[in-house]
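Side project, low priority. Logging it here so it doesn't get lost.
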Amino acid sequence: MSTEHLSAPARPVQAPGAAGEPTTPGTMKVSWRGRVALRAGVWAVRASRLFGFGGGMIGGRVALVVYPGILRELSAGRRVVLVSGTNGKTTTTALLAAAMRSAGAVTSNSDGANMLDGVTTALATSKAPTAVVEIDELYLPQAVAQTAPAVLVLLNLTRDQLDRAGEIRRTAIALRRLADTFPDLVVVANCDDPYVVSIATSFANVVWVAAGTGLNEDARTCPHCGHRLSADDADDLHWQCTRCGLFRPLPQWWLSHNEMRSPGGDELGGPLVMYDGSLVPLQVNVPGVVNRANAAMAVAAAYTLGVAAEKASVALSSVTEAAGRYRTLGVGEHEVQLVLAKNPAGWAATLNLVCADRTPVIISINAGEADGRDTSWLYDVNFDRLRGRLVIASGARAADLGVRLSYAGVDHLTIADSPAALETVPAGPVTLIADYTSFAQLRNTLGALSDGH
C-alpha cells in the first residue's frame, strides 16, 4: 500500500436518504404542461424514426422546448445522481447504474446522450425511483439546478473541444460557483485531479477518491492562481501549490497495488481500500487501468447512496462495455474492438491500453460539431507510441491525422473510409479508435456487419 494513505481519514459522508429508496418515493407529479411536452416528445420520436433519423434524444429536446420546466418535474420525488467530467462519464455511469440496480430499479442515459435533452429522455422513459445520469460538464450547473441531485460525481477536468468549451479554468470557475447556491450538495470527487479539487473544496460534503490523473499537462498549474504545482515523488502524489496552498486531500477510498484473487483463483487486481482500512475485491470487466479508477469512483458513490461496498463491486462486474465502448465485434475475419478517444487525456489512457500488444490500429477522426472542429489537440497526443505497428488513418479528417502521424514518425496508410480500411488489415484482432461522431457511425455500421460476436 502506498504511504500516502497510511493515515485513515474520517468516515465519508452519506447522501440524504442513503439507507434505501429516495426520501420521497413515488411523489413525482407532472403538470398538464409537462404532459403536453412529453406527448410532443413522443410524437417527435415517432416522426424521427419514420423518416429514418432514429429516435434518441429528440424527444427530450422537443419536450424541453415545449416546457422548459419538464426536467425539474421529472426529477421531483426521485433520487438523482449526476456523473460529470471530461473523460470516463459514460463508463462510470454504466458502472454506477449497475451497482445501484443491486438495490432497486434505476434509469440511466445509457446511450451516452449527456446534455439536458438526453437526461430528460432518460427520466421521461422510466418511472424508476433512482436515476444515474451522465451530464456534460458545460451543462452541469443547469442540471444541478433542475434535478436537485442526491450526489454529484466529479471525475476529472481536462481540455476538450476548445472551440466549444474554451479553457478549463473558465469551466472550473463556473462549477465552483455551484457551491454558492447548493453548498450542501454531496460530492464524490477525484482527489488526484487538481481542477476537481479546486471545485469540490467549495462544498461542505465531499467524499474523496484517489482515482488518478498522473498530473497531465492540463493539471500541472494551480487552477486557483496559475502557479506551477509541485509533487514530492515520482508518482505525482501529494501535489500542492506553494503559492496559494491548494493541495491534494487525503482520500477516503483508494486502489491498493496488492493483488487479490477470486475464489476460483482468477487474478482480480488490487482491491479498493475503504476509509477504515477494509479491502473490497474489485473485479472490473471493462479494460484498462483507468476503468479500475472509474469503478472505484462508482463504488464510493454507491456506498455514499447506501449500497454496501462489496455488493456494489459485485454488481458492477457485470458491465463489459458502455454504449459500445470496448465492444468487440466479429466482422468477417476480424475481431474489432471499438474504443472512444476524443482528447489528449483520453488518448493517454487509450494508448496505455492498446500499446500492451501489437494489434493493428485504425484511427478515425471526423472533427464534426459534436467532436469540436479544432483538431489542433492531435499534436498533444503521443502518437509516437504507435511506431512499428500497422496504423491506418481514417475518417473525414484522415488527411489531418495522417500529417500528425507523419510528424510522430509513425508509418501509416491513409484510407478515409474506415470499413474499407478494415479490409486491408490481416485477419485477426483489430483496435478501432474513434472520436465521438466517428465512433457513433462505426458502432452502427460495423454492428450491422457483425456476425454476432
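Brief comment: The first strand starts at residue 79 and ends at 84.
Revisit when time allows.
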